[in-house]
Write the structure tokens for this entry.
Amino acid sequence: MSHQPRTLYEKVWDAHVVEPRDDGSCLLYIDRHLVHEVTSPQAFEGLRSNGRRVRRPDLTLAVPDHNLPTTARVDASGRELPIADRDSAEQLDALRRNVAEFGVPYIDALAAEQGIVHVVGPEQGFTLPGTTVVCGDSHTSAHGALGALAFGIGTSEVEHVLATQTLILSPSKTMEVRVDGTLGFGVSAKDVVLSIIGRIGAAGGTGYVIEFTGEVIRNLSVEGRLTIANMSIEGGARAGMIAPDETTFAYLKGRPMAPTGTDWDRAVEWWRTLPSDAGARYDRNVTLSASDIAPVLTWGTSPEDVVAITGVVPEPESFADPSKQAAARKSLDYMGLTPGTRMQDVAVQHVFIGSCTNSRIEDLRAAAQVASGRRVAAGVRAMVVPGSGLVKRQAEAEGLDRVFTEAGFEWREPGCSMCLAMNPDKVPAGERCASTSNRNFVGRQGPGARTHLLSPAMAAAAAVSGRLTDVRDLI
Amino acid sequence: MEPVTRVAGTAYPWGQKNVDTDVIIPAHWLKTIKRSGLGRGAFEVVRAQPDNIFDDPRYAGSPILIAGDNFGCGSSREHAAWALADMGVRAVIAPSFSDIFSGNAFKNGIVTVVLPQDAIDRLIAVAQDGEITVDLETMTVTTPYQDRFPFTLDPFRRRCLMEGLDEVGLTLAKDTAISKFEEAMHRHRPWIKDRSGNAGIAVEGAGRT
Ligand code: SF4
């Protein structure tokens, strides 16, 4: 073992190399594999047709999320309601059949623990510091918030991991993104990560694994850190990581799948050795100051199109790069926005609070604080979709559901919902949505839908005022 | 995977440039649960046009597709390779391919052959009525008219294709190394294996470990 100072990423990588290969890539061991209904059916089919088994069902966990409607799942007498979309129903059924046939631990659509795969992993203590975590979904980067090396994979790779519990991978470059200082009033983790992406650009992290460091990150809860790591992929990075610390350990202790007893003690002992060594070098360093981060949101169709809520829709000519100017013109046309318009003057018809970025209990509390005692503005459809059944239950125990429903928000069943237009929750063409999700791509929330990414509190503020609003005026 | 040493037969003389994955297989086919059957959706938009090359009886079922620059650009969906394989295509010949597509093609037993544009033009002419042969042994594309175009292929990919090795199969052959790694892991990080709790989580079909 070398005595050179190593980064968190390098330590986790080194601990998982099964075998180096001639071309610089490695056979890497995978500790945790999350499976959902969309990217797994062909992988299971591949195993079946080759007579292969799942090597480590005990390191695998399956849960449906993308296709599930977020309306009631059982009728008054508790019977499961059929899913109207035939293809969605078929994909969900296939997952049920596959996990039964291959003996994969499974959280059913009707279980209280069901939820978005990236909410469920940390919540169950399935995701642990220093583990390698994969899932056939790009936002797997979220799990890096706990100090895991976590990234999305394609369907052939899902099959590879199911069969061998390994992946062939080449090492990434490392980037440190340090956020110094203390966050201002009304500024949340979502504002931090959007500001980071605004700074480095949507392709800025390509080829890198980012480690988020600095006082702001250290002072965030695990939930806030999950929001940040979740969007690493939106900055182009393969993965995003945050060093595990006391906050991480306190979050994990007692979770259903977290280690217990002496295992727990040994685990914590190892986890404490994971943070980057003093003097460890990154291939690139980026520094942001908390004092420069305001409540922000996106104006265009790339997550890098970030502007402060107090700002205006930018002039395409204000960008130095001619290709960015052209992209901005196209974005603004799609978004139906005129340069120079104050962001706070833009009216919205939809508000979506949910997705693996912002659907945990703290997100709902932040939104409820703004919604409390207010009414959703006329002409706005606002929905709150908890990230899991357990988040939903906790919110109901705290009375948040009543705060939302009394204010006129819809209170839904957990799932991906309006984050992507794969289930019935869609934004109609030409209409505008203030959304706590992670992608504002053309058509992401439905063909022709216009998306503004923002924090849960800002989304709630938009809901009650009917337009994009500075949440600091309401709290 | 079936070993491929030689792909011979008729070829679609298409030559189209910048064929993106949306053209190969439109997004609405992504809700499928199968790799197979996607041939029906392959080139759906092209096939909606009368007299298209894919429904021409002279070429129907060809194992070879001849295309233009930048074949398979766009999204990373593996469905594009599945669709081609399902319609019976075993080799695509083009001046260039998107990296992701050639990776996906190779994983599914499809040979991607890069040849210069003038060779492509000649092959398109021959394919109007003649057969084409892609030979991985000699690394050449030949025609009945004595044309002979050499090409190159990543040695690892060539071996996988010729021996019918898929990456999963290759890694499974490393079973000893993986098992050794697991043993060490269970000693040093026992908590990875002994997932506690599991309360409320159905483990169906258990025992098939
Ligand atoms: S919530 Fe959205 S981003 Fe997250 S897993 Fe679901 S679809 Fe993907």
